[in-house]
Design brief:
Blueprint (H helix, E strand, L loop, with lengths): L3 E10 L3 E7 L7 E2 L2 E2 L5 E2 L2 E2 L1 E3 L6 E3 L1 H7 L3 E3 L2 E3 L1 H19 L3 E10 L4 H13 L7 E5 H10 L9 E8 L2 E10 L5 E9 L1 H8 L5 H16 L4 E7 L9 H7 L4 E5 L2 H13 L8 E4 L6 E9 L2 E8 L9 E6 L6 E8 L5 E7 L13 E9 L2 E8 L12 E7 L1
Parallel strand pairs: 1-11, 11-12, 13-16, 15-18, 16-17
Antiparallel strand pairs: 1-2, 2-3, 2-6, 4-5, 7-8, 9-10, 13-14, 14-15, 19-20, 19-22, 21-24, 22-23, 24-25, 25-26
Helix pairs in contact: 2-3, 4-8, 6-7
Length: 405
């Protein structure tokens, strides 16, 4: 019997460790999956490594090599980065089958610190090798994962602004989530500030615990000064030794504070649920540096009525947009694309002429439309005359327009 695609899966892949979580449709919170760790115990931190069959050798550190487009060696030989990543993802995702043998993945969201297009493309190619296409997978940046985590909590936890300190790998980054609820949809942005200069002070043994605590308190108050912060999150392995436990107790006064290291993977699960069809945050648009800020639509006649057909939705990363469709013109000499910026509310219309098929735009032509982006504010639309059966062959005309949003 075929397994049912019901699981929303989040995957947070890092250079050293990876975490995986599953959100079932009937559950409110994700389930962190555990794997075998050192000493025979169970751990949620899965080593990001691939074992070479028959050799006992392990390949590590390949994520950064993929990001830097460096050569990966496995057992002394050059290895295809797609194959290495696919092998790792296959082993990691197999944990879902162990715990949910009769169910399979409905939507998978992979979150990572690497936002470069070449890295993201490699992840998609690796997932394709596992039979998981773009219709069931999305690669998201950690800012998105953070937002989806916060917005999936009780509203009283994010009624004002929300801050998060991420302390890992000798780096400290502060993320502050700001939501403009006066707009519809609500616009959510995340501001970043680097505090890595402080990290070495907390790691080294030169300062006493009291000094570290005082420095940390000053750092936090400097970041949130003048802000109305409803909740603070402390995430990352850097907080595991509890050097700032006393300060965190003070920070709980007048606000909520949470500490842990699985925020990103849980946020990826919530995002997978949203993308998988259980729309709970339709009235929220996240805007990051790679995010398209405009809705693109066209007017069509379908199902016996005129309606607005969405081509591109604001809140989508530009490198995820790759869409194709066919239209049959009904007397139209041009394609009118409506552009609406969700931030400024400014609207405009871009007309793309179809001058090569004059005389056949009265339902005697089929026009193929391809939509892709070369950046968050540059949409490339390609139109092709596909003809209309044997009596109206194609003119082989192609129109391409770049729309600056």
């Amino acid at each position: 019997m075929m397994s049912q695609r019901t699981l929303y899966v989040g995957l947070d892949i890092r250079d050293d460790i990876t975490q995986i979580a599953v959100l079932e449709p009937s559950k409110e919170g994700p389930d962190i999956l555990m794997a075998g760790g050192e000493g025979g115990g169970q751990t949620m931190n899965i080593k990001t490594e691939v074992e070479i069959p028959g050799s006992g050798l392990r390949v590590q550190g390949f994520l950064e090599k993929i990001y830097r487009q460096e050569t990966i060696y496995a057992d002394g030989r050059k290895s295809n980065p797609v194959n290495i990543l696919a092998a790792f993802l296959r082993r990691t995702l197999s944990l879902t089958k162990k715990k949910y043998p009769s169910e399979s993945i409905r939507m998978l969201v992979v979150t990572t610190e690497y936002r470069e297009l070449s890295f993201i493309t490699t992840v998609y190619k690796a997932l394709e090798k596992l039979g998981i296409g773009k219709d069931r997978a999305l690669v998201a940046d950690r800012g998105q994962s953070y937002v989806y985590y916060v917005m999936s909590q009780k509203k009283e936890l994010w009624v004002n602004q929300v801050g998060m300190f991420d302390f890992r790998d000798s780096r400290i980054t502060y993320y502050q989530m700001q939501a403009d609820r006066l707009k519809r949809p609500a616009i959510v942005k995340v501001a970043e500030k680097d505090y890595s200069d402080y990290a070495q002070l907390f790691i080294s043994g030169e300062q006493t615990d009291e000094e570290k605590s005082s420095i940390f308190e000053g750092m936090v108050h400097g970041a949130i000064h003048g802000q109305i912060i409803t909740s603070l999150y402390m995430t990352g392995a850097g907080f595991e030794n509890d050097f700032a436990a006393d300060v965190m107790k003070k920070l709980c006064v007048g606000r909520h504070l949470f500490k842990g290291d699985n925020l990103y993977v849980c946020g990826a699960c919530y995002m997978a649920r949203e993308l998988g069809g259980e729309r709970r945050l339709d009235d929220v648009v996240y805007l990051g540096e790679d995010i398209v800020t405009s809705d693109l639509t066209i007017q069509v006649y379908a199902d016996a009525q005129e309606r607005e057909l969405p081509l591109v939705r604001a809140g989508t990363a530009w490198y995820h947009i790759e869409k194709e469709m066919d239209l049959i013109p009904d007397g139209d000499q041009e394609l009118a694309v409506c552009i609406k910026n969700v931030v400024t509310k400014k609207q405009s219309v871009r007309l793309i002429p179809m001058d090569g098929i004059l005389g056949r735009t009265d339902r005697r032509a089929r026009v193929g439309i391809q939509i892709r982006f070369s950046g968050p504010d540059r949409c490339i639309m390609t139109l092709r005359d596909k003809g209309f059966g044997e009596f109206f062959p194609s003119s082989y005309r192609i129109w391409e327009e770049t729309i600056t949003l």
